[in-house]
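Section 4.2 – Deliverable D4.2 (structural model, holo form)

The reporting period included a commitment to supply a predicted holo structure for the target in complex with nicotinamide-adenine-dinucleotide. Inputs used:
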Amino acid sequence: MPGFGLDPERSLQMWLFLIIFLVLLLCSRWVKYLYHSYQLGQIMAQKRFSNQTVIVTGAGEGIGYEVARQFCQEGAAALLNDILPERARAAAESISAETGAPCVAAAGDVADIDFVRGLVDRAVDTFGGLSVCVCNAGLTSWGDFFEYQPADFERVVGVNLRGSYFLAQAAARQFRRQGNGGRIVLMSSVTGHRAVPYLSAYGMTKAALEMLARNLVLELSGHGITINCVAPGAVLTPRNLSDDPDYEERWANLIPVGQAIQSEDIANAVLFLASPAASKITGQAIVVDGGWTSTSPIPDMDYGKDYRNRP
Ligand SMILES: NC(=O)c1ccc[n+]([C@@H]2O[C@H](COP(=O)([O-])OP(=O)(O)OC[C@H]3O[C@@H](n4cnc5c(N)ncnc54)[C@H](O)[C@@H]3O)[C@@H](O)[C@H]2O)c1
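Output (structure tokens):
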């Protein structure tokens, strides 16, 4: 064994010192490695909406279902509303089974002011607070302007505007009480930006929601509450596909990106607006339409078909 030109005792000490030094070096690397793994674990466990509670209306199927599903995947607890009790229950069960998140079904009509106020109370009673409110439920009401009936007008305004307005109000009151801000997302539509045949009343309600968001910036910002809209283009939802089996192809040919929009695309925008990354965005509308509003070609379809009174 080389002795560094030292006597055997000194040389042994030197070797011992070297070995201890190498062991310590290795240990420190291991400690560092373990520490970084721990940190990574912490980051992975800390999902974007951990410990948050979200209300999503019209969440039994379509866009609302996907919004609720993504929130739950990202750690939130959800109160899922739908006008159809069986649909609400099935959606809550399936999202909870898939994500492990607490999901509660709340069946009822968002056009009913007492009901939407009760939704906020229910979220607070069940989960202890509210973080995000997504006013998604909406009624697509087709009709020739010359023939359009007051009852249809009252219904579409009741669901799309009254429902969203008073749910946003109830959520904002709760956020003000909690004192640490909150997020409201309203579901608009490209028909609030561009004219589409026989959607005069519906398009009017969607444009109004966007003005509501712009206006409420004045009253909500001081409480740390943001309010924004997402305006979907043509989305591949079960309703659209059952109304028109050629929906996907029809719209893919008209949308610049060459594809109809998926519910996931809309949910991505909603979650972004509810996330910390969007804390300075308020009073805005994000259009998710694959570029359709740039040119807005209208599909050739049967506008005379009676799509009213759904679901
Ligand atoms: N699907 C699209 O292409 C599209 C495009 C632009 C905007 N939007 C808007 O996005 C939102 C969701 O659209 P969607 O197509 O997923 O909806 P949808 O018509 O498929 O309905 C989704 C769910 O809402 C429920 N619902 C209907 N009326 C309700 C009410 N009064 N109260 C509570 N629940 C009710 C239905 O039972 C259904 O399960 C709506 O506001 C709609 O106007 C949709």
